[in-house]
């Protein structure tokens, strides 16, 4: 996967695949050092060493009913996503969490582990929380990977895991990439701003930052949020109990509840085209891209 390097000379041989992770995680390392020592002391055997990937999937959707089962070049979308997630080296286990037997049967058919969850889950994070509680083993990190990301790069998953391992003051991690100018006004494309240490400041469906001219600045490096979230497992267990927050409800973005409640969120930058499926017409775009890249 093309990676965002810390500087132009980091693209030399040997510096590629993980340069962006080291660059992004180095920011703020000094400020977190004392907390890291304390946290490591409390948790023998390594800091947040075990990670599970959970792919929440539901059949009902106002924009695209049955989306996880939509065929993409002959395979269900959920299978395409699962196959990509299985390539991540940082995950000790991968499961699909669903409340629909049709999705569960499909996933078992191609070899995925499935955990059945309640229909009362209000969002993917709550579904991941319930699935975590049903798992028999302990995990320090839970990565919520949206089932509508059939081209998710495994290196992004590994980066999100490493972000939480390197940032003891954060309970949540996620990824962003460059926003394309044509996506600036698309409310399905969530934008993000971060501070100088690589922590999230805000997410919005509108363009942020927004300047006085009310026009997109072609010189500004706007950031697009990708559909992946890493949770400290202890935080995930309390997340559903946190009351909804005003900004979360107004923007309809789960991650804002984390920020509004005062928790820190580490963000990594990656070079990745966003290829999530939000509506039926996106399937054709994904298939065309896969053909162009000769992905079977």
Descriptive tags:
disordered N terminus, alpha/beta, nine-stranded mixed sheet, about 300 residues, two-stranded antiparallel ribbon
**What is the β-strand count?**
11
Q: What helical percentage do the residues reach?
A: 25-40%
Task: Note the main sheet.
Answer: 9 strands, mixed
Compressed to H and E, one letter per element, the order equals HHEEEHEHEHEHEEEEHHHEH
Strand content: 15-25%
List the uncertain runs.
1-45
Mean pLDDT: 84
Query: Which structural category fits the helices and strands?
Result: alpha/beta
- What's the gyration radius in Å? 19 Å
Subcellular location: Membrane
Keywords: Membrane, Nucleotidyltransferase, Transferase, Transmembrane, Transmembrane helix
GO cellular component, one term: cytosol
GO molecular function, one term: 3-deoxy-manno-octulosonate cytidylyltransferase activity
Question: Can you describe what's shown?
Answer:
Helix content is 33%, strand content 20%. With 296 residues, the chain is α/β, with parallel strands linked by helices. The strands form 2 sheets. Strands 1, 4, 5, 6, 7, 8, 9, 10 and 11 form a 9-stranded mixed β-sheet that branches. Strands 2-3 form a two-stranded antiparallel ribbon. The radius of gyration is 19 Å and the shape is globular.
């Amino acid at each position: 996967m093309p990676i965002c390097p810390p500087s132009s000379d980091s693209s030399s041989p040997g510096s590629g695949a993980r340069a962006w992770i080291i660059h992004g995680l180095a920011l703020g390392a000094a400020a977190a050092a004392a907390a890291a020592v304390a946290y490591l002391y409390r948790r023998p055997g390594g800091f947040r060493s075990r990670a599970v990937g959970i792919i929440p999937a539901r059949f009902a959707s106002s924009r695209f009913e049955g989306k996880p089962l939509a065929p993409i070049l002959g395979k269900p979308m959920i299978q395409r996503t699962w196959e990509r997630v299985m390539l991540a080296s940082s995950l000790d286990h991968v499961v699909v969490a669903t409340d629909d037997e049709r999705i569960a049967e499909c996933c078992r058919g191609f070899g995925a582990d499935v955990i059945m969850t309640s229909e009362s889950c209000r969002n993917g994070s709550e579904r991941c929380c319930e699935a975590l509680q049903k798992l028999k083993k302990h995990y320090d990190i839970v990565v919520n990977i949206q089932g509508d990301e059939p081209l998710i790069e495994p290196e992004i998953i590994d980066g999100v895991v490493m972000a939480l391992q390197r940032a003891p003051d954060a309970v949540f991690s996620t990824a962003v990439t460059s926003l394309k100018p044509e996506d600036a006004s698309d409310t399905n494309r969530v934008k993000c701003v971060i501070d100088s240490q690589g922590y999230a400041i805000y997410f919005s469906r509108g363009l942020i930052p927004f300047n006085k001219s009310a026009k997109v600045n072609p010189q500004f490096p706007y950031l697009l949020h990708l559909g992946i979230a890493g949770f400290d497992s202890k935080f995930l267990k309390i997340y559903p109990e946190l009351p909804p927050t005003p900004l979360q409800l107004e923007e309809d973005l789960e991650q804002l509840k984390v920020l509004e409640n005062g928790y820190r969120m580490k963000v990594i930058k990656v070079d990745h085209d966003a290829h999530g499926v939000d509506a039926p017409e996106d399937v054709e775009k994904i298939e065309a891209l896969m053909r162009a890249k000769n992905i079977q």
